[in-house]
Amino acid sequence: MLHASQLAQQQSQTYAVAQGKEAAALAVHVKQVQAQWFACEADAAAAIAEDEGRGPGRRGRRPHSWRYHTVRYRLVADERRRCRARRGRPAKTDPPPTEAGYRLGVEVEALANPEEDNGWMGLATTVHAAVCGDADILQRC
């Protein structure tokens, strides 16, 4: 294994760009997940399993897991207003109609890129180490 500082800089920049792109896609995903409403706890748990990558996937594709972020889903009991059953103006004493249900909460955490992991390159050659050093081989490639 050979370490190169120039390669390390390139890898850290690439990681940062890829993490930024994934953060944008993840923001859209979080918005969609938090907008979902579930009437029962079993449906919400099934949605969590699908979003965590344990579900069947969509359109025959494998479930998508996030590479640069850790995503945690949690179940939140909530109430929301619903439409009235009858037409017309309600009486002032009538409380607004609500329904109980569940929605999903999402926590996102960016994964750190350890700097010591960047810049390493595997070097395989048939040239003996006594004939030519690692740096010379890399410069000739």
Report on this model:
This protein is of the alpha+beta class and 141 residues long. The protein has one domain (2-59, 66-83, 96-140). It has three helices and four strands; from the N terminus they run βααβββα. The chain has helices spanning 5-35, 41-51, 134-140; strands at residues 2-3, 69-81, 98-110, 120-121. Strands 1-4 form a two-stranded antiparallel sheet. A two-stranded antiparallel sheet has the order 2-3. The protein starts with a strand and ends with a helix. The model has no long low-confidence stretch (mean pLDDT 82).
Order of helices and strands: EHHEEEH
Q: Which ranges are low-confidence, i.e. pLDDT below 50, for 5 or more consecutive residues?
A: none
Q: Which structural category do the helix and sheet elements fall into?
A: alpha+beta
Kindly state the percentage of residues in helix.
25-40%
Distance between the termini: 16 Å
Strand content: 15-25%
How many strands, what sense, and barrel or not for the largest sheet?
2 strands, antiparallel
